[in-house]
Design goal:
The chain is mainly β. It is built from three helices and 31 strands. It has a domain of 66 residues: Nucleic acid-binding proteins (OB fold (Dihydrolipoamide Acetyltransferase, E2P), Beta Barrel). The strands form two sheets. It has a 20-stranded mixed β-sheet that branches.
Length: 407
């Protein structure tokens, strides 16, 4: 490896090492290795065996929509033996996984059956920073100058009773993705943070100006003049990066300390499935989702594709491109009474309020509920149930729409 590669790799140490490890470091390592003639690193899908049956070395990306195993992009993964890490590279507990966190899962899966076994689960967010302006009527707020939209499926942590509970200056961590059509980040999960800095912003580079040393990231104008030369080499329009700094934006520009690649997975072969919004669209059969090029020329497409449209894509990877078999579109503004799926053993059941705990979350079954393999009278502590419902941010509970007694 040449001096240029060694120099860029060395920037991953020091006082920012915690922020630049995990998949960020893996992403940088991948770029450096490719540039220097190497290969491997990061989340790399292996060679699969086709579109049906269980396939080894699959990659699935998207927000967590359920537990009882971990559910991402409609696939239920057994996580009992998975190694869980955060974007800082720290090994975490399965209990640290929360609804709405955006993950990259490696393992084996049968996408047709919708189940698999996870070998590793890595989660990470888009933004960390203090809240600026809040617009309750419009359902959004700003962080580091970026707009964050709250949707019907946005999950707030237990310390926040929805958007109305946020205050200017609160430091938050936002999971989700950037909607290029709306010019705003769509939040899948919002948490309060106690750590003040460094702050971060993740997204695809646009409007790169190598003369002025500026580019746009999620609608925020970035000044990268202070970024070391070795890190600037990764910058190009369309590349997904994380920018970070200890300071806040000033005068509509954020002067950052560093920029690193932040691609969640590098797809070289095998089966893959991802959920996210279309960031760019060159045709109705070629588009980009979270930095992943998608070829849908031979795919079954349900719905109309457009920039900003949320999609679920399933297919196989070839030369870094996800060749889609199926593309399904979703309306992120629509409410879904069964958006979340939880399976487990009932605890702390209160017959009067019809509330109980399931996998650490409160379930409210007091309203209209469809019961399967039982009835309301069968609700009791110790019963194993599957609950489908929506998240109510004001109460921090899952409002049950369907409850199935499993055994």
């Amino acid at each position: 490896m040449g001096a240029r590669c060694r120099g860029a790799g060395g920037r991953l140490s020091g006082w920012l090492s915690g922020w630049l490890s995990g998949w960020l470091a893996a992403g940088l390592a991948m770029v450096l290795l490719v540039a220097c003639g190497g290969g491997g690193g990061g989340d790399v899908a292996g060679v699969g065996t086709g579109g049906t049956g269980t396939v080894s070395s699959v990659v699935t990306m998207g927000p967590i929509s359920g537990f009882g195993s971990v559910i991402v992009a409609g696939v239920r993964y057994d996580d009992s033996r998975a190694v869980v890490t955060d974007e800082d590279g720290r090994v975490r507990s399965r209990a640290d996984l929360k609804l709405g966190m955006v993950t990259t899962i490696r393992g084996s899966a049968d996408f047709v059956a919708g189940n698999g076994v996870a070998e590793s689960i890595r989660f990470g967010s888009e933004i960390v920073g203090p809240v600026g302006g809040i617009d309750l009527a419009a359902g959004h707020f700003t962080v580091l100058g970026a707009t964050v939209s709250v949707k019907p499926t946005t999950v707030f942590d237990e310390r926040l009773a929805g958007l109305a509970a946020l205050r200017p200056g609160d430091v938050v961590e936002v999971y989700g993705g950037f909607n290029a059509a709306a010019g705003a980040y769509t939040a899948t999960r919002i948490e309060l943070r106690t750590q003040a800095s460094p702050y971060k912003l993740r997204g695809a580079v646009t409007a790169l100006d190598v003369v002025q040393r500026r580019f746009s990231l999620g609608g925020v104008r970035i000044d990268y003049d202070a970024v070391p030369g070795g890190e600037r080499a990764v910058l190009a329009d369309g590349v997904v990066v994380q920018a970070f700094a200890a300071r806040l934006p000033a005068g509509g520009v954020w002067r950052v300390d560093g920029v690193v690649p932040a691609q969640r997975a590098v797809l070289t072969g095998g089966e893959s499935k991802l959920e996210g919004s279309i960031s760019s669209l060159s045709s109705q059969t070629a588009f980009v989702v979270d930095g992943v090029q998608v070829d849908a020329g031979a795919a079954r497409i349900a719905g109309v594709l457009a920039v900003g449209r949320r999609v679920e894509v399933e297919g196989y990877a070839r030369d870094g491109v996800l060749v889609a078999r199926e593309v399904e579109t979703h309306d992120e503004d629509a409410s879904d009474d069964e958006a979340f799926d939880l399976s487990g053993v009932m605890d702390e059941f209160d017959p009067a309020s019809q509330r109980f705990r399931l996998r650490g979350l409160w379930i409210n079954a007091s309203g209209p509920v469809i019961f399967e393999q039982g009835s309301r009278s069968d609700l009791a502590n110790g019963r194993h149930v599957e609950v489908k419902g929506r998240f109510d941010s004001s109460s921090g509970t899952i409002i049950a729409a369907r409850i199935e007694f499993e055994y």
